[in-house]
Amino acid sequence: MTKIIRIKDVCSLTGLSKSYLYALAKAGKFPSSIKIVKGGTAVGWLESSVHEWLEQCLANQEEG
């Protein structure tokens, strides 16, 4: 099942601030948000994408 999570949950999962997450996404270093409703302003992230990003961060830590 695909689950969309909002910024509050993304911050909680990653331990990062809202502004830093948006900066990382803009730089292409974090999954981009998706619009929840076409034409709307609410955005969210695929929970699976956030978990994949976290797993990649852990893998990079183990390598170096």
Count of individual beta strands = 3
The amount of helix comes to 40-55%
Largest sheet: 3 strands, antiparallel
Low-confidence stretches: none
Arrangement of strands in the largest sheet:
1-3-2
Number of continuous helical runs: 3
Radius of gyration: 12 Å
Q: Report strand %.
A: 5-15%
Shape: globular
Gap from first CA to last CA = 34 Å
Report the mean per-residue pLDDT as an integer. Answer: 95
Q: What is the chain-wise order of helices and strands?
A: EHHEEH
Tell me the count of domains: 1
Estimated structural class:
alpha+beta
Briefly summarize what is shown:
The chain is α+β, with helices and mostly antiparallel strands.
Helix/strand layout:
Layout: E1 4-5, H1 7-14, H2 18-26, E2 34-35, E3 43-46, H3 47-63
Antiparallel strand pairs: 1-3, 2-3
Features:
3 helices, 53% helix, single chain, three-stranded antiparallel β-sheet, 3 strands, alpha+beta, 64 residues
Walkthrough of the structure:
The chain is α+β, with helices and mostly antiparallel strands and 64 residues long. The chain is 53% helix and 12% strand. The protein has one domain. Strand 2 and strand 3 form a beta hairpin. The radius of gyration is 12 Å and the shape is globular. The protein starts with a strand and ends with a helix.
